[in-house]
Amino acid sequence: MVNRIAVIGGGTMGRGIAYSAALAGFTVTLQDISEEAAFRARDYIEGLLTKSVEKGYIQSEQRELALNNLSYKTELKDAVNNADLVIEAALEIMEIKIDIFKKLDEWAPAHAILATNTSTMSPTEIAASTKRPEQCVAMHFFNPVHRMKLIEIIKGLDTSEATVEIVKRVAEKMGKDTVEVNEFPGFVTSRMNCLIGNEAMNMLMEGVASAEDIDKALKLGLNHPMGPLELADLVGLDSRLRNMEYLYQNLGEKYRPSPMLVKYVKAGRLGRKSGRGFYDYSEK
To answer: Taking a C-beta distance cutoff of 8 angstroms, is the pair 197, 228 a contact?
Structure first.
């Protein structure tokens, strides 16, 4: 049974996961090695809870419960030493994830499930760095976590059915629907998103249409809730490039990153978080 969740990483995904878990009634510890990042995550979560009350999405009592459920740490060992479930939400860099999981395996309780929030990377490879691969799994959350209803649950080679069932129940308590995926690079959603987004970038580079019209075409013509270039800006173009490079390495030529994506990342145009990507956010 999961009561205590540790979330590793105070970035966009980590703070979103911590928010949703605390609001669902779990006791949550959010950890980031940067004290400044932990403070920013705390301010973001508290602000989002307040806005949610003001807009009538939650009651003030729910806000207070969530705030009481949350704590923040900078030391990884302190954050995970009594966790039932650890959700790692670090950068999409395999070496970083493996290093974290080695430490989690040492410091988290023997019964704890170790989950990675990854959109493309192998939970089997990550789990192999631990002595508990049957208790390792991928939980792919979507941005923004508090609005998006899906969690992809990806089984590694040794992930047990008991582990899958436990994380399904956690997801359900957080108000999420789940799909169960057998591990393959990119899973379901990222393979499709990366292909569509990459083709949109190539069309923009070729002058087929403007960014606005490409996004509008997919929203109104194919009923996508967000255009592929808008979505890439939201995810972060550096994150999208890392995903594309991983898929290109593992799945071949059709996932070769668009030259425009590579150029934008080199120029520091990373999307919303840098103020400019395929769109200009400097005045928003």
So the answer is: yes
Tell me how far apart the alpha carbons of residues 33 and 156 are, in angstroms, rounded to a whole number: 27
In the three-class reduction of DSSP (H, G, I as helix; E, B as strand; rest coil), residue 41 is classed as helix
- Residue 257 pLDDT more than 70? yes
26: its two tokens: 């779990």
Element housing 19 (H / E): helix 12-23
Closest CA to 42 of 77, 7, 3, 86: 7
Predicted pLDDT of residue 134:
98
Q: Is the pLDDT of residue 284 over 80?
A: no
| Helical residues (DSSP H) of 81-225, grouped into ranges | 94-107, 123-127, 161-173, 189-206, 211-221
Amino acid letter for position 228: P
Return the structure tokens found at 40. Answer: 């920013």
Rounded CA separation 62/9 (Å): 24
> CA-CA distance, 121 to 135, in Å (whole number)?
17
**Beta-bridge mates of residue 5:** 28, 85
